[in-house]
Amino acid sequence: MDRSVAQTLHITLLSEADTIKLAQAIASILHQGDVLLLDGPLAAGKTFMSKALCEALGSEEQVTSPTYTISNIYNAPQGIILHVDAYRLSSEMEFHMLGLEDYVETGISIIEWGSRIREAFESPMHIELSLRQDNEARAAVISGTNHQLQQLQHALGKHSPNLKAQLKEADNA
């Protein structure tokens, strides 16, 4: 499958409520076998986004950062949610050695520091979170297949019309 990304979706998140709305829109388009990679500097909101996604997917379990355990598994109406913190993983091979493939194939995977093991997945959706210079807002840059981005734009319009999403040409350099 073609991994090239022609466009990215840019969203400014002015509050935690905006992050929750984005998570709800993303959750509405996720299916078993989907992988969502989260990246960004420390304190950019990766774990908060993970918690919001798990809640939006219907999990009633307490979501905690898997920083030291590497992975946590949660139950939701749609099935298993695999939550991974890849910060301490050095390669795709290290990820495969964890033996989580069944969860990836049959559940929904949310992977913090996901770019560290991006090559382990065929067509993941990727969210880069960053703090704006004023520290008053976060920026989310979302990449994925054109189909994923179209679905997300539709979901945002339906569930979160106040979030302004701007589609831009991706830098494929």
List the main descriptive attributes of the protein structure presented here.
Rossmann fold; 28% helix; 5 helices; alpha/beta; 173 residues
Tell me, what is the CATH class? Answer: Alpha Beta
In which order are the strands of the major sheet placed?
Answer: 3-4-5-2-6-7-1-8
Question: Element order, helices and strands?
Answer: EHEHEEHHEEEHE
Classified in CATH, the superfamily is P-loop containing nucleotide triphosphate hydrolases
| Radius of gyration from CA coordinates | 15 Å
Please report the distance between the alpha carbons of the first and last residues: 19 Å
**The CATH topology is what?**
Rossmann fold
Summarize the model shown.
The chain has 5 helices and 8 strands, in the order E-H-E-H-E-E-H-H-E-E-E-H-E. It is an alpha/beta fold and 173 residues long. The protein has a single domain, classed as Rossmann fold, CATH 3.40.50.300.
